[in-house]
């Protein structure tokens, strides 16, 4: 049996086009809905929340939300490999841990689309070549600006660095607060979730993991 067409759904629901659009997203050239469709979807969510999208204060909200989404989820259009590059600075002599700690990030959980606010600590053991330090923060940002679980994001950052730089090991720790836990459900405010991923030497040698942890905790 064919799925309902746009027209049929409109007739059945008698509520404009939104019910139909949600069931049957037409797609643009890059496979995405149009700006207009995104704005219509926001109007539906405003109604779902119990408000009136046509009241003055909300008139421009759908356009603002659509624009904000472009920024908040810009990580989908960015490839970490492009940021990390394929050429690296060669270093002679330095082969110890390179750690960038306390990289702040904002993400959104893929379960509720509610913010995850946290910090990432990213380290690697060079294998003769090093990354620009700002690139490590950029990789965190790219994966943060997607819908995420903290576990996935931690592993993605480690994998991206591991596969491009080919260091002796990568260590990533993320500490984050999940607004979906603080604002809804069990409402546990102030609880922090910790996740770690270790590769290479960081994985095989507990002493290297311990050093990474000590360096993160050594504040000030
Ligand atoms: Zn959530």
TrEMBL record:
Family of this protein: Belongs to the GTP cyclohydrolase I family.
Matching HAMAP family: FolE
Native source species: Mycoplana azooxidifex
Record NCBIfam families: folE, PRK09347.1-2, PRK09347.1-3
Species classification: Bacteria, Pseudomonadati, Pseudomonadota, Alphaproteobacteria, Hyphomicrobiales
Quaternary context: Homopolymer.
Signal peptide per UniProt: none
Protein name, as recorded: GTP cyclohydrolase 1
One of the Pfam families matching this protein, by short name: GTP_cyclohydroI
One GO process term, biological-process aspect: one-carbon metabolic process
Pathway recorded for this protein: Cofactor biosynthesis; 7,8-dihydroneopterin triphosphate biosynthesis; 7,8-dihydroneopterin triphosphate from GTP: step 1/1
Keywords from the named record: GTP-binding, Hydrolase, Metal-binding, Nucleotide-binding, One-carbon metabolism, Zinc
Zinc as UniProt keyword: yes
